[in-house]
Structure formats: C-alpha cells, structure tokens
C-alpha cells in the first residue's frame, strides 16, 4: 500500500502508516461521528514484552496523533492464568514507555452484559449448550476443505439450553462438562465460524470478582463486545487475528440487533448502525526478533523453572527485563518507529534494536571509569601517599550534564587487555618503551612488568610526565593511545554482569526442538572482581552510564552500598555479529 505524506503538528513531514490511512479514510467518511478511540487490551497473565510495546506504540500513537483517546482494558476472562501482580506490572510498563491511558477498564466489568448478551443469543436461536467433550467438538469441526458435522445438541430446545447455561454458572457444574456455542455455520470455510465455543466453566476464583462467576466468556466473545460497550472506533491488533475478524464483525452485528431492535423493527439496517457504532478491526505485523522468543507461555516456563532469574531478568524480552538491563524507553520507541508497520510478518535483527539503544544512550549516559578485567599499574615516580583530583566530563554530548572528579594516585587499575609485553607494531596501548595517555590525567611510559611463577602479569610499571596533565601546556604532546583507569586506593569493588543472546538459534520460535534445548549456556557471564570509581556510589538503578571504552551499563536493583552490581546494557559497537559469523 502506498504511503501518504501529511503535516504533523510540529510542521515536519512524515509518512502515514497504512493503519493511519484507514483511520483517515474513516474520518473523511464521517464514521463514528468523527471520534477516534483506541484501546490496548493485554491479558494479565504475564509481563509485557517488546512485542506488546509495538502494539502500545500503535494504539496510543494513533489516539495521540488524531486527538483521540486510548483506553487500557485488561482482558481478564481466564482467572486460572491471571493475577494482580501482572496488572500492576502492565501499568508500570506502559507508564515507563511514556504513554498515558484515558481510562482503565476490565473485561470483567462487562461480565453481566456479556452474560445477558449470551442469554439473548440463546433466546434468538443463535447459541446452544453442548455437552460433548472437547475432543468430540474438535473432531466434528472438520477441516478447512471439508465441512464440519453438526453437534447432536445443536437443535436442543431454547428453554433447555437456558436452564443448562444457568447451571454452568454454579459451583456444582463440572469443568469441561458443558460449553455454550454460537450457532453459526458448520460449513463455513473459516473454521472460526463453525459454532465457536463462547462460554466455558472455570472454578478458579477471579482476581477481581472472586467466586461470583463460574462460567466465563471466551476471548472471541468478550473482545469485540467490550470494544462495542466502550465505544472503541478502531480495534488495532496483530495479523493472527485476521481470520477472527469476520467473527468479530458477526458478534457486533448481533449486538447491534440486540441494542437497536426498535430501530431495526422500524426498517433501519445494520449498515446504517455500523457507520455510527461499529469498531473497525485493523491488523498489523507482529514484532519478531532474532534469538528471541515472545510466547508468554514459554517465557512463564522459563521463570517457573528458574531458567532465568525472573520476568525482569535482563536477558528476557520483557519490558521490565529491558528496563533492568538499562534500555531507555525512547530507544525502544525509536526502534519500533524505524521498523514500521506492515501487513507482512518479518524477523527483525536484534542488532537493529541494540543500535537504537546505543544511539539513544550515547546522548544521555554519564561517562565513568570502570575496569572489568583488572591488572595493577604502578606509577613508580609518582609520590607515595599523594593523590589528586582529575576533572572528568560527564557527557561530551551535553555540556549541561557538567563534570565530576576522579581521584588519581600512585597505584591504579587498568584493563589487562590494554597491556602487551611483546606488542605488534599497530598496538597503540601499553607496552614497554611506549607512551600512552591516562584519560583525564597524565602521559605515562611503560617501563616493564612483574609476573608470577606461571608467567602471568601481576603488575605493570610506568613513569609519568608531571608536565603532561590534561589541561597543562605539555598535555598537547601527541600520543596514539588513551587508556581509562581507576585508582586502586580510591575505588569500589563491583560485580559486572555481561549478557549474550538468551537463545543460541536465530529463530527459536520456528525451531521444532524443545525451546529449553535452544537456550544459550553462555547467555550470562558474571565478573566479580571489577573496580569502579567512587563516584558510582552516588548512582542508582535507572541512571544511564557509559563505562568508557567498554559499553553502556546500569546499576542493578540487587546492588547494595557494600556490593555494587552493574548490568551491561550494550557495547559501544556491534561486535556480536562479527564474533558469530
């Protein structure tokens, strides 16, 4: 579908998504009296993941762009899988992404209305109680090329179905013994039309209604009707709901007939009512990422089986996991904007998301010094017991972020990889006989090293040039290497957690093996002998940090003042693709 260029409120031009084009068509035709109302309808049976973030950006974004409202509605029709913990985390995640809902609703708000609607359908010959087993019902549905077989209960008397439906909503009803089915078309090529189940018996107490209900509506029966009750104009969802759309519209037809029977009796039509009241379902592609799985059922299994530390494990694709890892909400929204919305499913490279994270964090992260693989550097000609404060710029991308001090002393920690005793010509870090600059401090020349009995370097020695301090006249002398460091006398020990892809195959969702077999055993590496500058004791989870020359990091909630813990968010460059070619 071609794209239309429109003027946004800030006078810039951008391309309309195909969803927005449909919205503009409806506005031009005067549908829904010019109102725009969307909704985000998560089921509270798990934590939101980045796939949900794409739907959130669309649902709330359309409402914002057209001065409408987006409501939040919890699809809480299955009490056996839902609880308030999930409700609270969904609220937190949406707020963290930067969106505000108009109202909060629950499908359970409409349980009585849905029950009354189901009774109306039975009375009008559109529904019946079926006492077959789920296996029998599935077998009788046929195939997409062969019509189904009618249930032996399809034509049971209306009064009998009404009595049994009432019985379904009692504590005595046996789960699985009865269901309510819509009487539609057992020969329809759309399998969803073959007398779909619209109510089933569940005795698990509901997180809001307790034990008031024992019969609960199915998703297809509750979703569109909830949209109708709330006045939703555009029901935006993902592509797997395309085959559900005719059923969505059919149930809306029944509702329009029920709610406007006098209008219809006087010669009015469903088509006339549709222009004013019918929600329009529009589908877009899901967000799929390489080395990632979005199934909430499988993510729940990872949590319950303790294969990850929880829903907010930084390796998880959940928004809470990404927040804990150090992703910014702006980076996620920018990534979603960059991949866009289409009618075709695609597998997006995780590297695209990480690039968006890297780009955003570069603008807002405080630059600090940390050494994750330390070896001691002794400045042999620096006075014993002396120290001095060096000025470090917090963020060269934003002068307003200011500066902080970092303490320099005789004994320092540097990265072990920054030293090589017998270095090749293009090694511009520390090696005997060559100069390097210690960032924000002095130029030093390496004079040698000390090794243990196994040949491992335990100390490196260097001499500093007192006239080469950053900001001094002598500091302008050019050297090819600049290294970061931390004072061994004025630092804090820290734990650093390095993350890799959670799964070892590119598309785990398409792999037929058990997903547990696909987990990457190297997805978490813990470095417990790292050193950071003391300034980091002032930081807290949520502060974006760049460990200079290493990557972006964030303090983990596991941290205590005595034991700092940092999560690596993403590296400064995309080195993962090169390592895994």
Q: Would you mind describing this structure in some detail?
A:
With 581 residues, the protein is an alpha/beta fold. The protein is 27% helix and 24% strand. The strands form eight sheets. It has a seven-stranded mixed β-sheet, with helices on one face. Helix 7 crosses helix 8 and helix 13 (329-339) crosses helix 14. The radius of gyration is 31 Å and the shape is elongated. The model is unreliable at 1-13 (pLDDT under 50).
Layout: helices, strands, pairs:
Blueprint: E1 5-7, E2 13-15, H1 18-28, E3 37-40, H2 50-65, E4 69-74, H3 84-97, E5 104-106, H4 111-123, E6 127-130, H5 134-140, H6 158-168, E7 179-182, E8 197-201, E9 215-217, H7 219-230, E10 234-238, H8 245-259, H9 261-265, H10 270-277, E11 280-284, E12 288-289, H11 296-304, H12 319-325, H13 329-339, E13 347-348, H14 350-364, E14 366-368, E15 370-371, E16 374-379, E17 387-393, E18 403-409, E19 411-415, E20 435-438, E21 443-451, E22 457-464, E23 482-483, E24 486-487, E25 491-499, E26 524-533, E27 545-547, E28 551-555, E29 564-571, H15 576-579
Parallel strand pairs: 3-4, 4-5, 10-11, 12-13, 14-27, 16-22, 20-23, 25-29
Antiparallel strand pairs: 1-2, 6-7, 7-8, 8-9, 15-26, 16-19, 17-18, 19-24, 20-21, 21-22, 25-26, 27-28, 28-29
Rg value: 31 Å
Q: What's the shape?
A: elongated
Structural class: alpha/beta
Question: What profile does the largest beta sheet have?
Answer: 7 strands, mixed
Distance between the termini: 35 Å
User: Approximately how much beta-strand content do the residues carry?
Assistant: 15-25%
| Mean of residue pLDDT values | 93
